[in-house]
Design goal:
heterodimer, A: 264 residues, alpha+beta, Immunoglobulin-like, four-stranded antiparallel beta sheet, elongated, B: mainly alpha, Rossmann fold, 2 domains, five-stranded mixed beta sheet, 22 helices
C-alpha cells in the first residue's frame, strides 16, 4: 500500500479501533472506537477497492461507506455464524479488520498510481455561529438526559410484588418468600406464613420504601423433621400479605409447597 | 485578502433550532410520563421547530448542494431523535421487543436463528440483529443502545442516499432537497420507520441500491462494473434482512428494467434486468432454504387483505373508519389532528398531477422518472386500502416504498417556484408551511394519536425507581426463573418477558394461548393442558387488565378505571389441582403448572 496514504490510514485505524474497542471496559468509551470500526471503515475500504482509481465525490463516498458497512455487518453475522467460535466480540473484530485489510489490499493493487487527495470539507465558524451550534448541541444533550431520566408519576397506581420459590439446592425443602414494593410511598406490611394445613401462622411486620424488597426463608416445621418424618411428602405453604393501612383485606397471596427432607 | 468562508451561514442557527425543538419534544414526553396530560401541541411545536427552518432553507435558491445535503441529514437525524426521546432507554414499540430478544439471543448463544415464539419468521431474517450483535459483543452495549446506533447510521444512509438519488434523476439539488423533505412526510417516517425492526435497516439499503443503479447509468460502460460491488452487496444484505423489502426491490428493479426497455427498446446495458433477476433468485433461495416460515407469516396477512378489499368493495362489510383504533378503549383522534392529516393527503393529491404532467412533458425519457410516476399513482391506490379493515396494514407498509416516487413527483410540481405578488419569499413561506403540514399530517396518519407521547413504564418515587406491573413481572422473571423455562401470557406481558425479561414467552393464537387465558373455564375437550405440555409451557401468566391484549398499549402503569377481564378467567387456574400461584403483583399473577407437564 505504498503511496496510498488513505488506505494505510484506514488499515491502521481498523486495527487500532479493534484493539481499543475490545480492551476498553467502559461501554461508552468502547463505542467511540467500535463505531468507526463497524460503521465506516469496512465500507470505506470496499468502496476504495470497488472504485479504485475512479473519481467518486465526497458525499457518494460517504454514503456508500456507511451503507456498505451496514451491509457488511448484516452479511458478516451470517459468516460468523458458521465460523468456529461463532458470533463474539473478538470474532467480529477479526472479521472486520480482515475485511478492511483485504479490501485495502485490493484497492492498492487496482489503483494504478497515487490518487488525488480527497478534498476534506472545511468547517469554519465565526464565534457567534460556534456559539449557536454549541447551543444546539447542548439542547440535544439536555433532551437526551431528560428522556432518560425517571420522573415521578403521582397518578400511577403503585403495587407490591410477592412470590414464593424453592431455595436453589434445597431439593424443595426450603422456600423463599419475597416481597418487593413498587408503591409510590414507604408502606407497612404484615406478612403471614403458614406451613402445613394445620400449622401455625408465623408473622413478620416490616416497612418497605419504593423499590425495596425483603426475602424470607422457610423450612418444614420441626415436627416433620426427624427419623419419623414422612420423607418426600409435600407440605403446602401459603403466604399472605396485608397492608398495615388496611389489615382487614388480603393484599397479596401466593402458595407453594415444601418437600420433607430425608434424614441427614 | 480574506479567505471565503465555505460554511453556510444558515446552518448554525438551524442546528440551534433543531436542538431546541428536540428539547421541546423531550419536555412534552417527560410531562406525559409524569401523567400530567400535556397538550400534544407542545410535541408538534417541537417537531415544527426542528423542521420548518430546515424546510425553509431547502426551498431557497442560494444554498449549495453540500448545504442541502447537510440539511436533509440534520432533518433525518433530528426526527429520529424525536422517537428516541419518546421512550429511551426501553423498547416500547411492539416489534422492537421481538427483535431485541433475537439480538440478545445472538449475543448470549453466539449464533443466529434462535427460535422466537412471538414472531417466528424474524430469526430467519437476521440482518438487523446480526449487525446489532457486532456492537453488543464488541462494546458490551445493551440491545437498546446498540440498536439505536445502527438505526442512526441507517437513517443517515436513507436521507443522504435519497438526496443523491433525487439529485441524479432531477439534475437539481434544490428539487432533491425538497423531495427528501416531502419524503419525511410519509406516514411511517417519524415513528414506525425508525423502530428497532428489520425494515429500519433494509429500507435505507434499498434506497442506496436505487441510488447506485442511478449513478451507474451516468458513467461509461467499463466504469459501470465498479458499481456492481455496492449493488450486489446491498441486494444480498436486504435479502437476509427483510422479506417484504427484498420482494419490493425485486418488483422495483423489474419495473425499472421494463421502463428502460420502454424508453430505449433495448435490454442491453444499462438496463438493470440482471439485478432484478439476481434479487428475485436470491430472495427465492433464501425463502426456500432458510425462511420457509415466511409463507405462513405473510400468506394470511395478504389473503385477509384481499378478502377485506373484496368484502368492502362489494358492500358485504362496512368500510373501516379512518383514524380508528382497535377496541373501544382507544381514544379518538381530535378533529384538529384529523384535519391536519387529511390536509396533508389533500396537498399531496393536489400537487401530484402537476408533478406528473411536468415530468411527462420534460423527463419521460428517463426510466427512473417513469417508475417514480407509477409509484406515485400506486401510493394513492394504497390509500384506498385504508378503508378495508384487514388491508390497512398492507397499504401502510406499501406506502413507505411508493412514497419514494411520490416525493419526487410532488417536488417536481414546481410549487417551490411560486411567487405571489412577485414576492418569492411569500411563495417560499407558503410552500414551507405546506411541507410542515405534510410532515405533521403524515406522522398523525401513521401512528395512533394516543401513542404520540410516551406513557410511563418506570417512575421515580421517594428517590427510587419503580416499574409498571408488566415491566416488574419481566424483571422478576429474569432474576428468578431459569432461562430455559417457558411462559404463556397475554400479548403485552409476553413481549416484555422476551425483552427485557429474556425469557421464552408464548402469546396470541399460535399456539392458542389467547383463548386459553380468556375463556371463563377450561373446555370440556380439555385441549389446554396438552397444548401447554406440547410447547413445554410451565408458567402461565394471567393479567386482569384488558389492555394486556394490546401489543402497543399494554406496557405502562395503570392509573385506575381501566377495563378488566372477568375474574373467573384468572381464578380458573387456581382451581386446578397441584397448581401454585407463585407470583402476584395484583394485576398480574404467575401460576406454576409444573405438576401437569
Amino acid at each position: 500500500m505504498r503511496g496510498q496514504r488513505d488506505l494505510r490510514m484506514v488499515a491502521w485505524a481498523a486495527a487500532l479501533c479493534a484493539v481499543l474497542a475490545l480492551l476498553t471496559p467502559w461501554e461508552a468509551v468502547s463505542l467511540i472506537f467500535a463505531a468507526p470500526l463497524t460503521l465506516v471503515l469496512p465500507g470505506y475500504a470496499i468502496v476504495a477497492a470497488a472504485f479504485a482509481g475512479r473519481e467518486l465525490d465526497g458525499p457518494r463516498r460517504a454514503v456508500l461507506s456507511v451503507a456498505l458497512s451496514l451491509a457488511t455487518l448484516a452479511l458478516g453475522a451470517l459468516v460468523l455464524n458458521y465460523a468456529p467460535g461463532g458470533i463474539r466480540g473478538f470474532s467480529w473484530a477479526v472479521l472486520l479488520v480482515a475485511v478492511v485489510l483485504a479490501a485495502c489490499r485490493a484497492a492498492a493493487v487496482r489503483r494504478k498510481g497515487k490518487i488525488a487527495a480527497i478534498p476534506r470539507p472545511r468547517l469554519r465558524l465565526s464565534r457567534i455561529e460556534l456559539g449557536l451550534a454549541l447551543g444546539g448541541l447542548a439542547a440535544v444533550v439536555a433532551a437526551l438526559v431528560l428522556a432518560s431520566s425517571t420522573m415521578p408519576a403521582g397518578k400511577a397506581l403503585g403495587f407490591t410484588e410477592m412470590w414464593i420459590l424453592p431455595v436453589p439446592g434445597s431439593g424443595g425443602s426450603e422456600a423463599r418468600i419475597g416481597v418487593k414494593s413498587e408503591e409510590q410511598a414507604t408502606t407497612g406490611f404484615d406478612l403471614g406464613i403458614r406451613v402445613g394445613r394445620k400449622g401455625g401462622i408465623v408473622r413478620h411486620s416490616f416497612s418497605l420504601a419504593p423499590g425495596e424488597s425483603r426475602v424470607f426463608t422457610v423450612g418444614p416445621p420441626a415436627a416433620l423433621v426427624g427419623p419419623a418424618a414422612p420423607v418426600g411428602q409435600a407440605i403446602p405453604v401459603v403466604a399472605t400479605l396485608l397492608l398495615d393501612a388496611d389489615p382487614r383485606h388480603v393484599y397479596r397471596r401466593v402458595n407453594g409447597s415444601l418437600v420433607v427432607p430425608g434424614a441427614r | 485578502m480574506a479567505r471565503p468562508n465555505p460554511t453556510p451561514r444558515a446552518l448554525a442557527p438551524i442546528a440551534l433550532c433543531a436542538g431546541l425543538g428536540l428539547l421541546l419534544c423531550a419536555y412534552a414526553n417527560s410531562l406525559s410520563r409524569q401523567l400530567l396530560d400535556p397538550n400534544a401541541l407542545i410535541l408538534w411545536a417541537g417537531v415544527l421547530l426542528i423542521a420548518l427552518p430546515i424546510l425553509y432553507r431547502l426551498t431557497s435558491r442560494d444554498a449549495s448542494p453540500a448545504e442541502r445535503l447537510a440539511l436533509v441529514c440534520l432533518l433525518g437525524l433530528s426526527l429520529y431523535a424525536v422517537k428516541l426521546v419518546r421512550d429511551a432507554p426501553i423498547f416500547t414499540f411492539s416489534d422492537e421487543v421481538v427483535h431485541a430478544y433475537n439480538a440478545n439471543q445472538i449475543a448470549i448463544h453466539h449464533h443466529l436463528f434462535h427460535y422466537n415464539p412471538i414472531l417466528p419468521v424474524t430469526p430467519s431474517y437476521p440482518g438487523l440483529e446480526g449487525a446489532t450483535s457486532s456492537l453488543m459483543t464488541i462494546t458490551g452495549l445493551s440491545s437498546y443502545w446498540a440498536g439505536a446506533v445502527i438505526v442512526v447510521a441507517a437513517r443517515l444512509s436513507l436521507v443522504a442516499a435519497l438526496f443523491l438519488l433525487y439529485s441524479r434523476v432531477s439534475g437539481s439539488a434544490r428539487t432533491a432537497g425538497i423531495a427528501v423533505a416531502i419524503y419525511a412526510g410519509n406516514f411511517n417516517f417519524l415513528y414506525w420507520g425508525v423502530q428497532f425492526s428489520y425494515e429500519s435497516l433494509s429500507l435505507p439499503i434499498f434506497v442506496v441500491v436505487l441510488m447506485a443503479i442511478a449513478e451507474r447509468d451516468t458513467v461509461p460502460r467499463d466504469w459501470a462494473r465498479d458499481w456492481a460491488v455496492p449493488i450486489v452487496l446491498g441486494i444480498s444484505a436486504i435479502v437476509i434482512t427483510h422479506h417484504l423489502t427484498s420482494y419490493a426491490l425485486a418488483a422495483f428493479l423489474a419495473g425499472l428494467a421494463l421502463a428502460y426497455w420502454l424508453v430505449k427498446r433495448d435490454w442491453s446495458w444499462p438496463n438493470p434486468w440482471r439485478y432484478a433477476i439476481f434479487t428475485a433468485v436470491l430472495a427465492t433461495v433464501w425463502l426456500l432454504l432458510v425462511a420457509s416460515s415466511t409463507f405462513g407469516y405473510l400468506s394470511p396477512v395478504l389473503s385477509e387483505a384481499f378478502k377485506a378489499i373484496f368484502n368492502t368493495a362489494s358492500g358485504e362489510a362496512p368500510p373501516r373508519g379512518l383514524f380508528q383504533g382497535k377496541g373501544s378503549t382507544v381514544p379518538t383522534t381530535p378533529l384538529l389532528a384529523r384535519s391536519v392529516a387529511l390536509a396533508a393527503v389533500g396537498l399531496l393529491t393536489a400537487a401530484a398531477p402537476f408533478g406528473l404532467l411536468r415530468l411527462w412533458r420534460h423527463s419521460r425519457r428517463q426510466p427512473f422518472v417513469l417508475i417514480f410516476g407509477v409509484a406515485a399513482i400506486g401510493f394513492f391506490a394504497t390509500l384506498v386500502l385504508r378503508l378495508a379493515p384487514a388491508a390497512w396494514e398492507t397499504g401502510n407498509r406499501a406506502g413507505e416504498f411508493l412514497f419514494i416516487g411520490l416525493a419526487f413527483v410532488v417536488a417536481s410540481a414546481g410549487a417551490q417556484n411560486w411567487a405571489p405578488l412577485k414576492r418569492a419569499w411569500l411563495g417560499r413561506t407558503a410552500f414551507t408551511a405546506a411541507l410542515g403540514v405534510v410532515l405533521v399530517g403524515g406522522a398523525i396518519s401513521g401512528w395512533p394519536w394516543d401513542l404520540q407521547l410516551a406513557s410511563p413504564v418506570r417512575a421515580s418515587a421517594e428517590g427510587r425507581t419503580i416499574s409498571s406491573p408488566p415491566l416488574a413481572l419481566a424483571n422478576w422473571a429474569r432474576e428468578n426463573i431459569p432461562a430455559d423455562e417457558r411462559f404463556g401470557a397475554s400479548i403485552a406481558d409476553a413481549r416484555l418477558l422476551m425483552d427485557p425479561g429474556e425469557r421464552l414467552a408464548f402469546a396470541g393464537k399460535h399456539p392458542d394461548i389467547q383463548d386459553m387465558l380468556l375463556e371463563l373455564t377450561f373446555s370440556r375437550r380439555n385441549w389446554e393442558m396438552p397444548l401447554l405440555r406440547e410447547n413445554g409451557i410451565r408458567y402461565v401468566v394471567t393479567d386482569s387488565r384488558e389492555i394486556a391484549s394490546d401489543s402497543t398499549r399494554g406496557y405502562p402503569f395503570s392509573v385506575g378505571g381501566e377495563a378488566t377481564i372477568p375474574r373467573q378467567e384468572i381464578l380458573k387456574f387456581g382451581e386446578l389441582r397441584d397448581v401454585r400461584r407463585i407470583y402476584s403483583n395484583g394485576e398480574i399473577s404467575i401460576y406454576d403448572l409444573g405438576a401437569h407437564l
